[in-house]
Design brief:
The structure holds 2 protein chains of 2 kinds. Chain A is α+β, with helices and mostly antiparallel strands. Chain A has 2 domains: 60 residues, no CATH class; 102 residues, Beta Barrel (OB fold (Dihydrolipoamide Acetyltransferase, E2P)), CATH 2.40.50. Chain A has 3 helices and 8 strands. In chain A, strand 4 and strand 5 form a beta hairpin. Helix content of chain B is 74%, strand content 0%. In chain B, helix 9 crosses helix 16. Chain B has one domain. By secondary structure, chain B is mainly alpha-helical. The chains are: A alpha+beta, B mainly alpha. At the A-B interface, helix 1, helix 2 and helix 3 of A face helix 2, helix 9, helix 14, helix 15 and helix 17 of B.
C-alpha cells in the first residue's frame, strides 16, 4: 500500500517525483491520480445524466396507483395515490374574505371512507372549474396521502385536474 | 406500581435506543432514519397481529435513538469522512485533525458540543416556553417561504470562486473561476430536480413511501464519501488518544452560542437541516477557530435532530420537524404533558449514556480502522447500505440511490460545497411553500 501511495506521487510518463501536482512540470504528463479523478468525473456525470433521465421517464410514464381505502397503511404516508368511490356527504367549503381557501369531502369506495381536501389556489380552481363533486357523485381523485398514528388519514389534491367525475354504469 | 413500571420502561428503552444508535456510529452510511424505518415496519407488522407498542416504549426508544445518533454520528463523519446531511461540515476540520493523529480529539470536542447542546435543549424545553414557541410560530409561519428562499440565496451566493487567479487571462481564467460556483449551481438544480421527481411522482412503491427520500440522501451524502475513501487509498496516520480543549471556555462558549443559534434555526424552520443551520450560525458569529467550529457543529447537530423531534411533543405546538417526528406521528400522536415530560426525561437519560459511550466507541472504531483499513470498512458500509435500500425501497430505490450518488460526487470531484445537494428538499419545499410547487411539477410533466 505504501508503494501505491508513493507511486501516485510519481509522474507515470517520466517517473520523476511530482508530489500532488496534476501535471508533471518536467514532461507535462498527467498524474495518475488526476487520471483516476478524470474517470470518476466522467462516471459521475454519466450516472447523473442517465439516472435522472431514466428516473424522469419512469416518473412521467408511471400511472398513479389506484388504492383500496381499507388497504391504506401509515407506510403509505406521502404516497401519490388514486382512489375511486362515491362522495358520501355534501362537501365542506371554507372562504376567507370571500375567496375559497379550503374544501374537503368524504369518499367511500365500499371498503372504507377517506377525507379528501384541497387548499389555497387549488381549492379555488376546483370551484372555478366546476369540478367540486356533490353528495352521491362517483369520482376518481388522486393526490398525496397523509396518514398519522392516531388513525387520521387524508388525501390532499395538488391540482384541480386530479378530480375526475365518473359516469355511473 | 404502574408508575414504577412506566419509569423503568422509559429508562430501559431510552438506553436501548442509544444502544441501537451505536450501529450507525460504527457503520457509516446507516442513518438513524433507516433504523427508525425498520422499526416502523416492525411496529406495523406487530400492530397487524394485534400488538400495539405503548407510548412508554415508543417515545423513549425514538428519543434514545435520536440523541444517540445525533451524538455518535460524529464518529463516522470524522474518522471515515462519511457524514449525513447534518454533519457535512465536520468532515474537513475533522480530516485535518485525523491527518495529525488527533481524530479522537476531534470526535471528543464535537461530542462536548453535543453535551452543551443537550443542556441548552433541556433548559429551553424545561422552562415554560411553549407559549413563546406558539407565538413565534404564529408570527413566522406566513413568512417561512421567503425565509427559506433567502437561505437558499445565501447558500448559493456564499460559494466563492476557488480558481481564476493564475494562468492565462481571458476565457481560461473565467471558466476556472466559475468552475466551483457553476458546479455548485448545477448540483443544486439537479438535486432539486431529483427532489421534484421524488416529491411528486416517486418510482418507489407506495408501500414504502414513508422512506421515499432515504435512498436519495444515502446517495447524496454518504456514498460519495465512501467512494472517495476507496479511490483515494487513504492511509490513516497513527492516532493518539489525548483530548484537551485548550483555551476551553472561550471556544466552548463561542461554539455553543453559534451552534445553538444554527441548530435552533434548523430545528424550528422546515427543511433547514443542522448542517445549513450550523453554516449560517458560523457566518453570523464569525467562527474561525477549528475547536469552536467543531463544538458549534456538535451543538447544532444535536439541537437540530433532538429539538426537531421534541417540537412534536410540545403541548399546543406539536410541530412536525424532521424524519423522526414524521415517522413517530405515523405510529403515535402525542398530545399530553405526560408525553412531553417523558420525552424530556428520555432525552436526558439517553444524552448522558451516549456521551459516556463516545470515548470507548471512538477507540473501538479507530481500532477497527487500524485492523481492517478504511477500504474494507467503506466496502462493508456500502454493502449494508445497499441491502437496506433494497429491503425497504426495492430496486427503484437503488436507481434513485445511484443517481443521487452521481449528483453527490459532483461537488466532491469538482471542488464545490456538498451542501448544494440539499437542493433535493430545499427547492421543492420552497416552491411548495410559495404556492408554485404544483405549477412547477405540472410544467415538468410530473402532475
Amino acid at each position: 500500500m505504501k508503494n501505491d501511495v508513493e507511486n501516485n506521487e510519481l509522474c507515470p510518463d517520466c517517473g520523476r517525483y511530482i508530489g500532488p501536482a496534476s501535471r508533471c512540470p518536467y514532461c507535462d504528463g498527467i498524474a495518475s491520480a488526476t487520471v483516476v479523478r478524470r474517470r470518476m468525473k466522467i462516471a459521475a456525470l454519466t450516472l447523473v445524466v442517465a439516472g435522472l433521465l431514466f428516473l424522469y421517464m419512469m416518473a412521467v410514464n408511471r400511472e398513479i396507483k389506484l388504492v383500496v381505502i381499507n388497504d391504506i397503511t401509515p407506510m403509505m404516508n406521502y404516497a401519490p395515490v388514486r382512489i375511486a368511490g362515491k362522495v358520501v356527504r355534501q362537501p365542506y367549503v371554507s372562504k376567507n374574505d370571500g375567496v375559497v381557501n379550503y374544501l374537503s369531502f368524504l369518499v367511500d369506495d365500499g371498503t372504507g371512507s377517506l377525507r379528501v381536501s384541497a387548499q389555497g389556489d387549488v381549492a379555488g380552481k376546483i370551484i372555478n372549474a366546476d369540478k367540486l363533486p356533490h353528495k352521491g357523485d362517483s369520482i376518481e381523485v388522486s393526490g398525496r396521502l397523509s396518514v398519522k398514528g392516531d388513525g387520521s388519514r387524508k388525501l390532499r389534491i395538488l391540482m384541480a385536474e386530479q378530480v375526475v367525475e365518473m359516469n355511473d354504469e | 406500581m404502574g408508575d414504577i413500571v412506566s419509569i423503568l420502561s422509559v429508562i430501559l428503552f431510552s438506553l436501548l435506543g442509544v444502544l441501537f444508535s451505536c450501529l450507525p456510529a460504527c457503520l457509516p452510511g446507516v442513518h438513524v432514519y433507516n433504523i427508525l424505518g425498520l422499526f416502523v415496519l416492525a411496529s406495523h407488522f406487530l400492530a397487524g397481529h394485534g400488538v400495539l407498542p405503548m407510548p412508554e416504549v415508543l417515545i423513549p426508544f425514538f428519543a434514545g435513538l435520536m440523541v444517540g445518533y445525533a451524538m455518535l454520528n460524529t464518529i463516522p463523519s470524522i474518522l471515515l469522512s462519511a457524514p449525513d446531511e447534518s454533519a457535512l461540515f465536520t468532515v474537513l476540520p475533522g480530516r485535518k485533525y485525523l491527518m495529525r493523529g488527533r481524530g479522537y480529539e476531534a470526535v471528543m470536542i464535537t461530542a462536548l458540543g453535543g453535551v452543551a447542546g443537550l443542556f441548552v435543549l433541556l433548559i429551553i424545553f424545561g422552562l415554560p416556553t411553549q407559549y413563546f414557541f406558539m407565538f413565534v410560530r404564529k408570527v413566522l409561519s406566513p413568512h417561512f417561504h421567503w425565509i427559506i428562499w433567502c437561505v437558499i440565496g445565501f447558500m448559493l451566493m456564499s460559494e466563492w470562486p476557488k480558481g481564476g487567479t493564475r494562468g492565462m487571462a481571458g476565457w481560461y481564467n473565467f471558466f476556472d473561476a466559475w468552475r466551483s460556483i457553476g458546479i455548485g449551481l448545477i448540483t443544486f438544480v439537479l438535486s432539486g430536480l431529483l427532489g421534484f421527481i421524488l416529491f411528486y411522482r416517486s418510482p418507489v412503491s407506495v408501500n414504502a413511501s414513508f422512506q421515499n427520500l432515504m435512498p436519495a440522501f444515502i446517495g447524496l451524502f454518504t456514498l460519495p464519501g465512501l467512494i472517495m475513501n476507496l479511490a483515494g487509498k487513504f492511509q490513516m496516520p497513527k492516532q493518539t488518544y489525548q483530548c484537551s480543549v485548550d483555551g476551553g471556555c472561550d471556544a466552548l462558549l463561542h461554539g455553543t452560542v453559534a451552534g445553538s443559534l444554527g441548530g435552533g434555526f434548523a430545528a424550528f424552520f422546515p427543511v433547514i437541516t443542522g448542517g445549513v443551520g450550523g453554516f449560517l450560525a458560523g457566518h453570523a458569529t464569525s467562527i474561525h477557530d477549528d475547536r469552536s467550529f467543531l463544538i458549534s457543529q456538535g451543538v447544532s447537530k444535536l439541537i437540530y435532530y433532538v429539538g426537531g423531534f421534541i417540537f412534536l411533543f410540545v403541548p399546543g405546538v406539536n410541530m412536525m420537524r424532521g424524519g423522526a417526528a414524521s415517522m413517530m406521528s405515523g405510529l403515535y400522536v402525542p398530545y399530553t404533558k405526560y408525553d412531553y415530560y417523558m420525552v424530556l426525561a428520555a432525552v436526558a437519560i439517553a444524552g448522558a449514556c451516549a456521551y459516556l459511550l463516545m470515548s470507548p466507541l471512538t477507540k473501538f472504531v479507530l481500532k477497527l480502522i487500524g485492523k481492517f483499513g478504511h477500504n474494507i470498512i467503506s466496502i462493508v458500509a456500502a454493502l449494508v447500505v445497499f441491502l437496506v435500500v433494497v429491503f425497504i425501497t426495492g430496486w427503484a430505490g437503488v436507481l434513485i440511490m445511484l443517481t443521487a450518488t452521481g449528483i453527490g460526487l459532483l461537488p466532491v470531484l469538482f471542488g464545490a460545497r456538498r451542501m448544494n445537494c440539499l437542493g433535493i428538499i430545499l427547492l421543492p419545499v420552497a416552491c411548495m411553500m410559495s404556492g408554485c410547487g404544483a405549477a412547477v411539477a405540472t410544467w415538468l410533466g410530473l402532475l
